[in-house]
Design goal:
The chain is mostly helical. It is built from 13 helices and no strands. Helix 11 packs across helix 13. It is globular. This is Oxidoreductase.
Amino acid sequence: MSTSGANADPLAALGALPGVAESVESVRKAVDRVYGHRIMRRRSNEITSEAALRGARGSAALSGADWALEEVRRRSDFGGDDEARAVGAALRLTAEAGQLLSIWRQSPLRVLARLHLVAAATNADEVGRPRRQGEPVDEPLVGLPLPDAQEAHGRLDGLAALVTAGGSAPALVTAAVVHGEILALRPFTSHNGLVARAAERIVLVGSGLDPKSVCPAEVGHAELGRAAYLAALDGYVSGTAEGMAAWIAHCGKAVALGARESTAVCEALQRGAA
């Protein structure tokens, strides 16, 4: 993500990569469609609630707990096994993300620590802080080489600096970089995928692209499939222009699919079927 010039904005430079502008425009049109639906004018709170549930289900599926939506809706106990705990963590993160919007731009590291604490739901020493040298990481579905703790800390600080500095990059680009960097670094000992997707949601909502949180990218990521998700992440980690553009495009497709999901919910409500 290097750029020339002392005041260069590396995220804005990513926005100029081939195909990224088209992804940004496609996402904007998809978001506009759902926000323009007549149901959104009267029942947006219901759409937001349903999007939160479906987003949590999608994020949990990418972490190995691919439950049917109705099972997620029905269950109240999420402590029984690893899959249930993953679903419970995803639901807690989705609820918590909305409470952290005002803090994100000032202190993204504080927000990430809070997200990890909420996801892990324990008081263990390693929870709510970046991992230390030698601590193992429980993220079996992401097989990328793991940066050591020192590199992870440095790059996490760099990511926080980009977020707090702001800039002119489209929300999709910033959200994709935040998501990809957290997954690449896996800065916590567990739940990094869930945290990364919750952070992506925070950027999309806080940026004003999706202020009512009705376009759950997690739904789209799950629909596109874990294999495509990990292949696109490989592109991000490669650091090449092509790989970065492919990851941003993948995230754009996920947001557009999330918007389509909520548009379908609007249509169902309009018909009186939901």
